[in-house]
Amino acid sequence: MAIELGIDTFGDVTQGPDGTLLSQAQVLRNVVEQGVLAEQSGLDAIGVGEHHRDDFAISAPEVVLAAIAGRTERILLGSAVTVLSSDDPVRVFERFSTLDAVSRGRAEVTVGRGSFTESFPLFGLDLSQYEELFEEKLDLFTRLLDGGPVTWSGNTRSALTDQHVYPPIEHGRRLRTWVGVGGSPESVIRAARHGLPLMLAIIGGEPVRFRPFVELYHRALAQLGTGPGLMGQHSPGHIADTDDEALEQLWPHYRVYVGRIGRERGWPPPTREAFEAAAGPDGALYAGSPTTVAAKIVRSAQTLGLDRFDLKVSQGALPHEHTMRAIELYGTVVAPLVRGALAADSTAPTPERSDEARG
User: Fold this and answer.
1) Is the pTM of this model over 0.85?
2) Which residues pair with 231 in a beta bridge?
3) Range list of H helices, 183-319
4) For residues 65 and 49, is the Cβ–Cβ distance under 8 A?
5) Dihedral, CA atoms, 99, 105, 111, 116, nearest 10 degrees?
6) Using CB atoms within 10 A of its CB, is residue 130 exposed (0-12), middle (13-18) or buried (19+)?
7) What does R_g of the chain's alpha carbons equal in angstroms?
8) Which residue from 174, 193, 294, 352 could staple onto 337, CB 3.0 to 4.6 Å apart?
9) Averaged pLDDT, 103-114
10) What pLDDT shows up at residue 113?
11) Residue pair 335/308 in contact by the 8 Å Cβ criterion
């Protein structure tokens, strides 16, 4: 089985050499360097997330991706995620079709509702419409993906009648659009109904527990006749030369990062014991040496029938130099190990799916 391997980053505000936090401007420049290194190291994709808060520097993913596009030739350029609920689908399509043009066909987008909600009050939207906003805007966005004039009406934005949107995707291709989900059945069915690739954000628990959602997705695709589906996984992690080095580099920043988010959401403070369990063979933290991380990715790929695996390499204030080393090891050591293992085990059982086509 073939697989695409990528990195994701939220542009976490990181520590500089003297231990103080870097400016958001410097973090953005560092993210561009990470994208360049990802291509040089042999990885297939980079995704950058959208946030509007002080601990993440990226609020305009397409601008950062365009900067990476200007310094690369091959790597896929996507969001992780675009918060479609608080954006306008027409503008999202225009920005990514522009990115697709300047990068010669390398743009993709992952749309989602977002795990943070700061964009809703920022853009004057009512959180009580959380579900309705995403459902309607995803419906409009999928109409735009088909090209040609669009006629659409709903409750959350003005209607369109025979509207063309520019620039169109070149050569009649379709902009690859993933739907990012946390694993709820409703979200899985929604992606299948629109015939869009599914990106599972597996950030806790055991990845194997998501297999029923994968099977549900492919059953729904087959029953709805919405075409072949692609399956992706986004999970956090860190790679260093040894397991101990990776965990020691990551833990102090993971503790602060997860602790801050946990306080916002009412979670208990992270413990070292839970951290090490998450980094173990059954956990959702892909942290360790290249061989350790490769083995975990292979297991997930075989269990979930993955077409794509994205490693979130930014982890709180983890310094840029550690992230750069992780990207280098991921591309030059982990990726060949994963691809080799999957090629050698091409008969491994995978979830039933509607079609093996990729694209």
Assistant:
1) yes
2) 198
3) 185-193, 211-224, 243-265, 272-278, 290-304
4) no
5) -50
6) middle
7) 20
8) 294
9) 94
10) 86
11) no
Q: Is the pLDDT of residue 22 over 50?
A: yes
Look up residue 64 and give its two tokens.
Answer: 């950062």
pLDDT higher at 116 or 219: 219
Please give the structure tokens belonging to residue 44.
């297939």
Residues facing 56 on adjacent strands: 12, 53
- Taking the C-alpha atoms of residue 10 and residue 54, their distance in angstroms, rounded to an integer, is 12
Write the CA distances from 265 to 80, 112, 262, 322, integer angstroms: 21, 19, 5, 28
Contacts of residue 245, defined as CB under 8 A and 6 or more positions apart, other chains included, come to 289
Burial 251-282 (b: 16+ CB within 10 A, else e): bebbbebbeeeeeeeeeeebeeeebeebbeee
State pLDDT tens for residues 283-315: 999 999 999 999 999 999 999 999 999 999 999
User: Which one, of 353, 322, 317, lies nearest residue 229 by Cα?
Assistant: 353
Residue 347, pLDDT score: 54
**Left (φ > 0), alpha (ψ -120 to 50) or beta: where does 19 sit?**
left
pLDDT at 354 (0 to 100): 39
What's residue 148's pLDDT? 87
Burial class of residue 234 (count of CB atoms within 10 Å of its CB; 0-12, 13-18, 19+): buried
